[in-house]
Amino acid sequence: MTTLRMALRNISRQKKRTILLGGAIAFGVMIITLVGSLTAGLASTANERFTDLLGGHIYISGQEVSESGRLISIVGEQEPLEEALFLIDDQIKEIRFRSAASGEVIFGSRTTTVMLDGVDWDHEPTLYKNLELIAGDITSVSDERTIIVPEPVMEELGVLVGESVLIRVTSITGQRNVGDFVIGGVTPDAGTFGLGSAYVDRAYLNSLIGMAADQYQRANIALADTGDIETVAATIERELLLLGKIDPGETAADDGHQPGSGPGRTMMFPGGMGFSAQVEETEQWEGTQFKVSTINDVMEPVMTIVTLLNQVSLGLFVVLMIITMVGLLNTFRMILIERTREIGTIRAIGMQRGQVRNMFLLEAFVLAVGGAIAGLVAAGILAAILGNIPMSTNTPMAMFLDGNTFAFPVNVINIAGTLAILTVITVLSAYLPARKAARMRPADALRTSY
């Protein structure tokens, strides 16, 4: 206790030096905490948004060969898929069935192309609730001819909410059909990340692409625990492979069905074109062949950005810690010189070497803890301020916004790790001067003059 009191007294003696050292530590903690929280918020918010917009975490699409030998996108056989899903029934939160097609949107003399996502609005309450529109009204989807378009489509066509457009699509049998739609709403531009789809009624889209109203091309699975995505995807793949519903030629050579590398996995956007090229006779099959992808595949561009930000913050943290470590080392060497006679005195009156060393180390520890607390408080204040600044939702950055602001979640494990590293670095910086101080002979220290 005496050693701690002396350490605290020594810290308070040089207030300017203490403030500078503590400030350097606080600044490092503030930067790493703030950037780490921001990147975690970006990843979490984007994941939630993409999950809502894409309709789940795992996407299972089906392909069949038509009588004419054409490859078409449709889940004609539902029994194999039901058997595979039965194995993970307790992990499924929700299943959503969608169709998709590429459509040419026509408005007067202007045209543009957009991916159409056929949605059963009555069975997708999450999308209905969370789909943020920058124009229009989500309740308009009660009309089967309503279409929700991304902002670039509206700008390219010069169309307004409530106006009618024609959309030309190709059916699964290769026919060209035209449907009449009404603009019911506009979503922010998310095309940067490959999510610039328009949403339409699935039954109406199916009627245009030659499918029955209750048929679908893709099953989107939302899981209760997002940490199980790759494991569940691998389970589905294995079962479909055993049932002969995934092309064995797509299986890894060593048959190692590890999560993320199993059969049928493909880095595809979870959409579909409905109609494809002629299939060679030797490559044709009967029934439905399935392909599986996950939101982790789709999130790759976003995670690249998040990883880059994490690397930048880690680089800043390393640089700041090196600067802090060098500053602490030099400072404690100066303190050692200044207190040489004082160390000789306290050693002469009976203080042991270990106590002298511990006094210096305790000073460094208190500085680390005090600076860290100050840094966390500063990071919390800045996060509260930045997290309440409204941002524009009319840009691709809207995919990273929680409402109309950035989220700054608190990750206790990351913060604890940062504080532990910081404390160790600070104490190590003071160790050499502390050991040198402890080894001083009282007589030599008392004879020293500076």
What is the 3D shape?
elongated
Low-confidence stretches: 251-275
* Percentage of residues in DSSP E strands: 15-25%
Number of helices: 13
Structural class from helices and strands?
alpha+beta
Q: What is the CA-based Rg, rounded?
A: 32 Å
Q: How would a crystallographer describe the biggest sheet? A: 6 strands, mixed, barrel
As for the number of domains, it is: 2
The termini sit apart by: 30 Å
Helical residues, percent: 40-55%
The overall average pLDDT, rounded, is 81
Query: What is the element string, with H for helices and E for strands?
Result: HHEEHEEHEEHEEEHEHEEHHHHHH
How is the secondary structure organized here?
Blueprint: H1 2-13, H2 15-54, E1 58-65, E2 70-73, H3 79-86, E3 92-107, E4 110-119, H4 125-130, E5 135-136, E6 146-150, H5 151-157, E7 164-170, E8 176-187, E9 197-201, H6 202-209, E10 218-223, H7 229-242, E11 275-278, E12 289-294, H8 295-298, H9 300-338, H10 340-348, H11 353-386, H12 412-438, H13 442-447
Parallel strand pairs: 4-9, 6-8
Antiparallel strand pairs: 1-2, 1-10, 1-12, 2-11, 3-4, 3-7, 3-10, 5-8, 6-9, 7-8
Helix pairs in contact: 1-11, 2-9, 2-11, 2-12, 3-7, 9-10, 9-12, 11-12
